[in-house]
Amino acid sequence: MISRIFTSNIPCRLGSGVVFERAIRNTASGVVHRRHMSYERNIVQSPFGNVDIPVKNVTEYIFEGYENYADKPAVTCGATKRSYTYGMTYEMTNRMARGLLSQKGCAMRKNDVLGLLLPNIPEFVPALHGGLLAGLSVTFANPLYTAEEVCRQFENAGVSAIVTLPMLLPVAEMFKSKIKHYKGTICIGGKHDLEKNIYGFEQFLKENHRSELPEIDCHKTAILPYSSGTTGLPKGVELSHYNLVANLAQGSHPTISKYYQPEYIDKKETILTIPPYFHIYGLNAILHSVLKSKNHIVSIP
User: Fold this and answer.
1) How far apart are CA 289 and CA 301, in angstroms?
2) Which residues on adjacent β-strands are paired with residue 115?
3) Which helix (H) or strand (E) element contains residue 280?
4) How confident is the model at residue 15, as a pLDDT?
């Protein structure tokens, strides 16, 4: 005979927190077993004290004070040595944002979703932050994914425009065929092909599009990184501008990062990165942290 077991959580107070006891009753014997499950309150205080978190969009926060480093290198490709200064990077970001919103460009609207299908290259920065400065949400996929995996993620995220490379254009074309109201593919290293709704990145920025940049709500979704799919298919994680800024503000504490100690204020280093920017660690903990501290980042595509 199989005994049925019923479980229920019974709250009981212990000190300043609440412990949940699990009551397990075996219907065959009538015996009730109890065991503690977890605390409701479990707050860990940092030994470094509180951190002030600015209410700013993440692009504004990262590039704050860039004018003082306008002629210093910001991002460099470790394979081709292609490099942009902080001044060039911010200008490209601004032009990208205006082109995405322009009626002569992609004609995107605030809250649309931009998809990046890129390896670690310097243009990842203006592609991402141009989207954020335009008030869009941005998602990014592993460029080694199959076309079907990319399409599934971009459909799930609601992408309506893609930034990619010439070798990955077929994937963007496949995605375009699956959705309505596609607004364009921006191809880094490619040329304009307006019949196919493709814009060459360099020409796109040179066209000097005119559009008004929107006011950005710091609590709206900025990026949509996708999980690795440990418990099934990958799932989008909504991170706001405020989330990203809070994480960077915590990492900027002088006890954690030497770059915010007085003796390092005027010392700038060249930092090699290997983790991919389409992963949140590679993006916020490395790329954004280096740009925020105005160091020089070198990436390997």
Assistant:
1) 19
2) 139, 162
3) helix 280-280
4) 42
State how far the Cα of 285 lies from the Cα of 185, in Å rounded to an integer.
Answer: 28
DSSP secondary structure of 184-204: EEEETT---BGGGTEEEHHHH
Q: What angle do CA 126, 113, 103 make, to 5 degrees?
A: 75
Domain boundaries, the chain: 58-299
**Composition of the chain by helix, strand, coil, percent to 5:** 30, 25, 45
Q: What is the residue type of 277?
A: Y
From residue 75, alpha-carbon distances to 78, 89, 109, 128, 200 in Å are 9, 8, 28, 14, 21
pTM across the whole model: 0.84
Token look-up 């709704």 returns 197
Q: Do β-strands 73-77 and 83-85 pair in parallel, antiparallel, or remain unpaired?
A: antiparallel
Q: Which DSSP symbol is given to 102?
A: S
Q: Going by DSSP bridges, is the β-strand pair 113-116/83-85 parallel, antiparallel, or unpaired?
A: unpaired
Q: What is the structure's pLDDT at 32?
A: 56
Question: What does the pLDDT look like over 155-198, one tens digit per residue?
Answer: 999 999 999 999 999 999 999 999 989 999 999 999 999 999 99
End-to-end CA distance of the chain: 62
Q: Tell me the pairing of strands 296-299 and 270-273.
A: parallel
- The two three-digit tokens of residue 239, written as one number: 């991170």
**Contact in structure between 59 and 284 (CB atoms under 8 Å):** no
Amino acid present at 206: K
Show the low-confidence residues of the chain (pLDDT under 70): 1-40, 229
Spatial separation of the C-alpha atoms in residues 170 and 175, rounded to whole Å: 9
For residues 122 and 76, is the Cβ–Cβ distance under 8 A?
yes
- Options 3.30.70.20, 3.40.50.12780, 3.40.50.2000, 2.102.10.10; CATH for 58-299 is 3.40.50.12780
pLDDT in the model for residue 245: 97
